[in-house]
Every structure is written in structure tokens, then in C-alpha cells.
Amino acid sequence: TTVFVSGATGFIALHVVSDLLKAGYIVIGSGRSKEKNDGLLRRFNNHPNLSVEIVKDIAAPNAFDEVFKKHGKKIKVVLHTASPFHFQTTDFEKDLLTPAVNGTKSILKAIKEYAADTVEKVVITSSVAALVNPGDMGNPSLLISEESWNRDTWESCQANAVAAYCGSKKFAEKAAWEFLKENKSSVKFSLSTVNPGYVFGPQMFADSLKNGINTSSGIIAELVHSKAGGQFQNYSGVFIDVRDVSKAHLVAFENPECAGQRLVLSEGLFCSQEAVDALNEEFPQLRGKIATGEPGSGPSFLEKNSCKFDNSKTKKLLGFKFYNLRDCIVDTASQMLEVQNQV
Ligand code: NDP
Question: Which of 28, 194, 233, 333 has the smallest number of CB atoms closer than 10 Å to its CB?
Fold first, then answer.
């Protein structure tokens, strides 16, 4: 079975590619440049079941046409993970919203055009951001589940970069469900979305930490590199380990019951305070050197400052246990400290 993975060089996607290869799938990955793609092949030791294609910018209309023209007749499963995830912009439409939405539309359009009879499953990496906007995330009287939608509009989500990123995930996911509704008779695939909370956990390859860091892992890096007595931003929300996110991408297309479902990936609520507590308790070499905040205050902070989540439907569909916060943070930070000690 051949699986296409867009954005294959990303933090989550590298785990997905690894899990797919381990499970015996043939993988075609897209990356933005020859350099990135060469790096991808090298990291997987030129695995015979892995090949790559360049998709330079998913914002471009028809971005995926060439790939599907060339490989469409082989591809049975499409995992669309590529989407901008950063807050370094003031042009939210150009840098966040448009690429997210266009990328989703163009990959589905390419499937319809060149692989309508072959692609059976499409999994889109959406987000908890598609379920709830940043403001509502802090509302303790709100309950979020697989049925929820971020209530921001195209306009209101452009209040700041975080809201715009969240909006980009909502509008991209909506575009996918709408595409399927409108094209039901001309495509064969069923659609599932994977909607993770904050994703932490180790990089698939430790050397990824040497040239910048992906946005969600940056939250933990900031704590590992904080100063004694220093302040940190107390991020809060739900979290999930990247190894579970990867696994869920496979179950999403392997388990027929996941067809048509939104899989909300959360092991539970988290805030930076709880993560920093874990670091101080688990790493003697960090104790006294990094921030402490108000140890133990995490749970009461979350009770007052976070909405509630119910993803029991997803847990039942996936049927595997998620990494807990402690193990997730310890494995994330251990890798960061190891890499730091090498330089
Ligand atoms: P990364 O930034 O590591 O991965 C994003 C991938 O998308 C990269 O390969 C990136 O390429 C690619 N990409 C971004 N913009 C474009 C573009 N315009 N054209 C082509 N490729 C592009 O982050 P993650 O692995 O964390 O994110 C993967 C997916 O998971 C995204 O859809 C994200 O929204 C979603 N997600 C992530 C969460 C998290 O906490 N990490 C939580 C919920 C959802 P390049 O690096 O070369 O720019």
C-alpha cells in the first residue's frame, strides 16, 4: 500500500513516516526543497520504501497536481500534514490562512483529478484549534468535544497571530469536509481528521533540535532554558505526545470505524507550570537553575482558566493508551539536554 505524506519533513510527520515504514507501507513524502528532501532520505538511511517529491508552497493553486499526475494511480492513502504553524507574521492571510486553506483544497482537488479511483483514505492533520478559539480555551464553563467548532470568523481570527493560526486550522478543516460533501459522487475516499492539542515529545531525530525548533516543542525548550527566579508564559490547554499523534494517523486510515470522524487527541489538560514542576522534580541538573514559578499551582490554575474536554469517543475509536504528561515532558527534555551537551 502506498501512502502520500505532505509536509513530510515536519515534527509530527517525521514520526508518521517512521511509523509507516516500520509497518511496511510504501511512502511518498513531500518537502519544500531538494535540500530538505535529501535530508529526509538521509535520515531514513535511503529506505527502499521511501521516496520524495518537492511541493514548494502549498499556498500556490494546484500545488499538488504534479505529484498526483505522476503518482496518483499508486496512492491509496493520503496524509495531509503540511500547514504553516508559527506566529512570526503580521500578514495573517498570506502566511497562515491562505496556505492552510489552499493546501487542503489543492490536495483534495488533485486527488479528484488524478486519483479519484485509487485514493481510498484521506487523513487531514487538523487541530484542537479548529474546535475552540484561544479566548474560549480559557472559559471553564465550556465543554469541548469531537462536535465542537472554533467560533471565530475569517475576520475575527485575525486579531493576532495565535488566533489567526487557530482560524487557519478551522477554515482548512471546514474546506475539507465541504469538499467531500460537494464531490461525494466523484471521489472514492473517506475522510478523517486528527485534531491534536499541544504536541510535545521527542523529535524523531535529535539533530532536528540543532536548527531551530517547531512551535509546540519551543514551549518546553523555553522552560528547559529558563533562568532561576525567571518568569515564563503559563501556556495552557490540552496536550498529547507526538508518538501518539503519529500512531493516530495510522489508526485513522487503518480502522474503518474512523472514516468520517474527527479524532481529538488529548491526554489531558496541561499548563507550563506543571511542565516546569516536572522538570524541577525529574532533572537534578536543572534544579536551582531554571524557573520554578509557583510549584503545585497548576491544577488550580487550570480549574479556573481552562475549558473542559471530552474526547472519550476518540479514545474508544483509537483503542490505545496515550503517554502521560510526566513521561512526555521527561522524554522531550532529556533529548534537549542531550543535544545541548553535545555542543
Ligand atoms: P512543523 O512546522 O514541524 O510542520 C509543518 C510542516 O508543514 C513542515 O513540513 C512545513 O515545511 C510544512 N509547511 C508549512 N507551510 C508550508 C507551505 N506554505 N508550503 C509547503 N509546506 C509547508 O509543525 P508540526 O509538525 O507541529 O505540524 C504538523 C501539522 O500538525 C500542522 O498541520 C499543524 O497545524 C498540526 N498541529 C500541530 C500541533 C502541535 O502542537 N505541534 C497541534 C495541532 C495540530 P517547512 O518546515 O519546510 O516550512
Answer: 233
